[in-house]
Write a structure and sequence with these properties.
Blueprint: H1 7-24, E1 29-32, E2 42-44, E3 51-55, E4 65-66, E5 72-77, E6 81-86, E7 95-101, E8 109-115, E9 124-128, H2 134-142, H3 145-155, E10 161-164, E11 180-181, E12 187-188, E13 194-197
Parallel strand pairs: 1-9, 2-8, 3-9
Antiparallel strand pairs: 3-6, 4-7, 5-6, 7-8, 10-13, 11-12
Length: about 200
């Protein structure tokens, strides 16, 4: 004898369907930025297909610039992604620039070229920036050395003290915009650099 339709059968059918859908979803294409000058990476788009560009770091959504924006039915900027879908097909030789600016890190921005190619479309593109090498970090920090030296010189900090706009330490009187001497004898003004001894 057949039983009437049961909720457990419905749940099992739903789970099987979801599993099949999840397995069929493509993982997408991975793209590692080189940080070197050259041809920007190509992303293949097509009408009726939503292409998501997922970045490995937060971006500035309002800074996204898309050439020919009016030709796209979908342009959505997220915290770490940009989603696009053109209204009409782009020709194989046609390329539209998409510029994305990161909130921090290097490179500060990236340009992609959106193009069309029959039979090829990107549904998901995972973009990552290269990890900074020790040498790249050293070069970036060496650019800060003149600023550090200048702040120490202007402050008149003795060896062992650091220039900083940190809160006042004992021995300073910076009220009424008067010049005061701190405990190291360096002249300071309200709002200006101060010396402080690391403890």
């Amino acid at each position: 004898m057949l039983r009437p339709f049961t909720p457990s059968f419905a749940l099992a059918s739903l789970l099987v369907g979801l599993t099949a859908t999840a397995q069929a979803a493509p993982a997408g294409r991975s793209l590692v930025l080189t940080g070197k000058a050259g041809e920007p990476p190509l992303i293949y788009v097509a009408p009726g297909v939503v292409t998501m560009i997922r970045l490995d770091a937060r971006i500035v959504p309002e800074s996204v610039q898309l050439e020919g924006r009016a030709r796209f039915a979908v342009v959505e900027e997220g915290e770490q992604s940009v989603t696009v879908s053109p209204t009409v097909a782009l020709g194989p030789g046609e390329r539209l620039a998409l510029r994305v600016t990161y909130r921090e890190g290097s490179p500060a921005s990236v340009v992609f070229l959106l193009t069309g190619q029959p039979g090829t479309v990107d549904g998901l593109v995972n973009v990552s920036r290269p990890q900074q090498t020790f040498e790249a970090c050293r070069v970036e920090l060496s650019g800060l050395a003149p600023i550090w030296w200048l702040s120490r010189t202007l402050c008149g900090c003795p060896p062992g003290a650091s220039a900083s706009p940190l809160p006042k330490r004992e021995g300073t009187n910076l009220s009424d915009n008067r010049v005061a001497q701190n405990r190291y004898g360096a002249a300071t003004e309200r709002g200006g650099p101060r010396c402080w001894q690391s403890e």
